């Protein structure tokens, strides 16, 4: 038994925050943001656009693409670090929104690498025979977790949700998966929970030592893509597309260069979406498919890196 992607979907909040908007909020410029990150605008969730709400919308699209009904799902896994509650989990709220009952549902917290981790869990549930169809959602609202006065983080993050349905199949869709972490670097990228009974929670914003994170991300991702290709017994030349985590265009181009891929073979969404954390890879995958660039049979390398540090990849035949 193999696992294979049956359908994908995505949801982006209505509100657009441009670089010009950020120029009004902090001391920055469109030129600096575009040159250093490649980001031009990002979406900001309203109070109603919770990770669960966005996850349901993305899931409905994925179900439609897979020509399935929600009742055919055996499990809902949501990668998020923005859950409204510790419990019920965002996955349970998504299951409720889809009208499901008697379904496996839980969240996975692995920051920007969450989708890779959730995908891996779904794949293993399928090949172990525990589930046939698994909804994997990546949903985050990290723009809200940034200090609006901190120009080093507020420019980077956007909100959104992406989803895919991974199903049992005779055809091998998932070719290789690699996950890992370096917990000794946790101090470089942190998002503490607000503390109960404390009047001032102003130090609970997302903190990132950007420059150090950047260097680690480039090094780790270069190693990760090679390890994943090796696990699948493939070479970079066999790949049709790279679907990378959308943190910084310079990180993405460094990984593409390492794989000797032309940028036309790389799905880039960060110019319009910023870094949507766990949503970034499934949103990019969905966009590549909906634009007709990614076709059935294409070999795709999905990769992500985030706070922890954690990182992960999936090499798939779509
Ligand atoms: N506008 C203008 N100037 C700025 C801004 C801004 N928004 N932000 C920082 N600067 C200044 C700095 O203060 C610094 O000034 P100085 O030289 O006078 O001290 C200068 O610009 C350069 O700052 P750096 O931090 O060195 O800039 P860098 O080129 O590294 O770019 C960035 C910063 C974009 C954050 C980059 O380091 C990055 O993308 N890091 C990786 C992010 C990432 O991959 N995160 C992982 C996933 S996130 C997750 O898991 C939740």
Automatic annotation (TrEMBL):
Catalyzed chemical reaction(s): malonyl-[ACP] + acetyl-CoA + H(+) = 3-oxobutanoyl-[ACP] + CO2 + CoA
Any one Pfam family match given in the protein's UniProt record, by short name: ACP_syn_III_C
Record-annotated active site: 112, 245, 275
Location within or outside the cell: Cytoplasm
Lipid metabolism is among the record's keywords: yes
Every Beta-ketoacyl-[acyl-carrier-protein] synthase III C-terminal domain range: 229-318
Region described as ACP-binding: spans on this chain: 246-250
Start and end residues of each Beta-ketoacyl-[acyl-carrier-protein] synthase III N-terminal domain: 106-182
Documented EC number(s): 2.3.1.180
Pathway involvement of the protein, from the record: Lipid metabolism; fatty acid biosynthesis
Record-level Gene Ontology MF annotations: 3-oxoacyl-[acyl-carrier-protein] synthase activity; beta-ketoacyl-acyl-carrier-protein synthase III activity
Keyword Methyltransferase: no
SUPFAM superfamilies, per database record: Thiolase-like
Keyword annotations of the record: Acyltransferase, Cytoplasm, Fatty acid biosynthesis, Fatty acid metabolism, Lipid biosynthesis, Lipid metabolism, Multifunctional enzyme, Transferase
One GO cellular component term noted in the UniProt record for this chain: cytoplasm
Main location: cytoplasm
GO BP term, pick one: secondary metabolite biosynthetic process
The protein's assembly and partners: Homodimer.
Domain notes for this protein: The last Arg residue of the ACP-binding site is essential for the weak association between ACP/AcpP and FabH.
NCBIfam families documented for this protein: fabH, PRK09352.1
Family: Belongs to the thiolase-like superfamily. FabH family.
Function: Catalyzes the condensation reaction of fatty acid synthesis by the addition to an acyl acceptor of two carbons from malonyl-ACP. Catalyzes the first condensation reaction which initiates fatty acid synthesis and may therefore play a role in governing the total rate of fatty acid production. Possesses both acetoacetyl-ACP synthase and acetyl transacylase activities. Its substrate specificity determines the biosynthesis of branched-chain and/or straight-chain of fatty acids.
PANTHER family xrefs: 3-OXOACYL-[ACYL-CARRIER-PROTEIN] SYNTHASE 3 (PTHR34069), BETA-KETOACYL-[ACYL-CARRIER-PROTEIN] SYNTHASE III (PTHR34069:SF2)
Protein known as: Beta-ketoacyl-[acyl-carrier-protein] synthase III
Record organism: Candidatus Anaerobiospirillum pullicola
Native organism taxonomy: Bacteria, Pseudomonadati, Pseudomonadota, Gammaproteobacteria, Aeromonadales
């Amino acid at each position: 038994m193999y696992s294979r992607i049956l359908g994908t979907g995505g949801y982006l909040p209505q509100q657009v925050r441009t670089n010009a908007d950020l120029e009004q909020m902090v001391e920055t410029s469109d030129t600096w943001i575009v040159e250093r990150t490649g980001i031009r605008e990002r979406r900001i969730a309203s109070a109603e656009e919770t990770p669960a709400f966005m996850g349901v919308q993305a899931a409905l699209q994925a179900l439609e693409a897979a020509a399935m009904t929600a009742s055919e799902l055996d499990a809902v896994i949501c990668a998020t670090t923005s859950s409204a509650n510790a419990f019920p989990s965002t996955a349970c709220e998504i299951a409720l929104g889809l009208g499901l009952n008697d379904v496996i549902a839980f969240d996975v917290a692995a920051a920007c690498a969450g989708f890779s981790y959730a995908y891996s869990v779904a794949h293993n549930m399928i090949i172990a025979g525990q589930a046939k169809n698994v909804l994997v959602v990546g949903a985050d609202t990290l723009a809200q977790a940034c200090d609006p006065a901190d120009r080093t983080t507020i420019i980077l993050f956007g909100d959104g949700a992406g989803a895919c349905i991974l199903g049992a199949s005779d055809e091998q869709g998932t070719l290789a998966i690699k996950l890992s972490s370096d917990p000794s670097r946790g101090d470089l990228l942190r998002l503490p929970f607000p503390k109960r009974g404390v009047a001032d929670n102003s130090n609970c914003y997302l903190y990132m030592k950007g420059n150090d994170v950047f260097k680690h991300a480039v090094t780790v991702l270069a190693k990760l893509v090679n390890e994943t290709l090796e696990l699948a017994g493939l070479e970079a030349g066999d790949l049709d597309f790279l679907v990378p985590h959308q943190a910084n265009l310079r990180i993405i181009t460094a990984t593409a260069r390492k794989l000797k891929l032309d940028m036309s073979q790389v799905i880039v969404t960060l110019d319009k979406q910023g870094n949507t954390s766990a949503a970034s890879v499934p949103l990019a995958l969905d966009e590549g498919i909906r634009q007709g660039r990614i076709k059935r049979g294409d070999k795709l390398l999905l990769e992500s890196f985030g706070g922890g540090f954690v990182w992960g990849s999936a090499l798939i035949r779509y």
